[in-house]
Amino acid sequence: MTWEYLQELIGLGETEINWVTKVFFIVSITLILNFLINRVFIRLDKQLERTSTHWDNALINAAHKPITTCIWLIGFALAAEISEEELAPQAINAIDNIRQIGFIALITWFVNRLVKNSERILVSPEKVKKPMDLTTASAISKLLRVSIIITSLLVILQTLGYSVSGVLAFGGVGGIAVGFAAKDLLANFFGGLMVYLDRPFSVGDWVRSPDKEIEGTVENIGWRQTRIRTFDKRPLYVPNSTFSVISVENPSRMTHRRIYETIGIRYDDAAKISLIIQDVKTMLQEHEEIDETQTLIVNFNQFNASSLDFFVYTFTKTVNWIHYHEVKQDVLLRILDIVTHHGAEVAFPTQTLHIAPNDDPVKPQ
After folding, report:
1. How many CA atoms lie within 13 A of 247 on its CB side?
2. Mean pLDDT calculated for residue range 123-148
3. Which tens digits make up the pLDDT trace of 201-231?
4. Residue 227 forms beta bridges with which residues?
5. CB of 141 within 8 A of CB of 119?
6. Beta strands 297-303; 308-316: pairing state
7. pTM of the model
8. What's the alpha-carbon Rg for the chain, to the nearest Å?
9. Which conformational region is residue 233 in: left (phi greater than 0), alpha (psi within -120 to 50 degrees), or beta?
10. What is the mean pLDDT of residues 144-166?
């Protein structure tokens, strides 16, 4: 669009207008048009929220800011075209390059926003019937966005007159030097890639390592490091290369939680221990929160220093940490009731002192 065409469009004909006035006029038109487009996008977005699909909202949201920015870019290009006679040739060339690079950047911005919005939809259980795993969606999204940015940079270099093949050749040679200089960075990158592929844990999982003091909830898996929130709410940043050399436990993926307790009964209640063990086992088999399809053991275990010990080994149906402790508390209280019901007592450390009779007491002098 040239100034002559715009002049005909608004009915000014061949009227001579000062270039400053022309630039002011272009800026005013751009400002008004940007305001109107903004209002159109806002109303359109509200209308599309009523539809059953979320992809139209994702498209409109992704296009909103790039299009409004594109209007300013077009206005800037028109103002620059009008001011050609007042500018140096070098400035005109620079403005032309900025315009071309700007359009490429806007397209890249739009596609990246669309990928990000698509990621949000795919992981939301409210928007799709079968949401994608957050870690997988994040990995695919990051790979796509990186690919888009790299492609855009190559197109920009080509637009500026640089040879893309020469850049790629230089990148191959320079990549070797960069690889030696940034080996830790590359190790973290490939460590993150292995986490994405092997998926030993996902965002939201509770993880811990017996090799290092790492325990908490995974908040973010980046290309260089993983952020874990410890249970005292401190952020812990772990380089991704660490996960290739340590063992990682993922308690979030356990199928059951275990109750393993030892209970001691007094030696005075030795005659009642078999009945107590039988009742405890029956109670566990009938408990609604205990999974009797898993290993369930209640057996007399050992003669301890001040008690007769039996142990309870069983698994709960729940894996929730808070609910598990409620179930465990209920089981232990029921065991205590069974022991009391049989007239027995739970043992505690005691000592019995036996004094031998003295047949020949010492006579006083």
Report:
1. 4
2. 76
3. 888 888 999 888 899 999 988 878 889 999 9
4. 220, 237
5. yes
6. antiparallel
7. 0.54
8. 37
9. left
10. 78
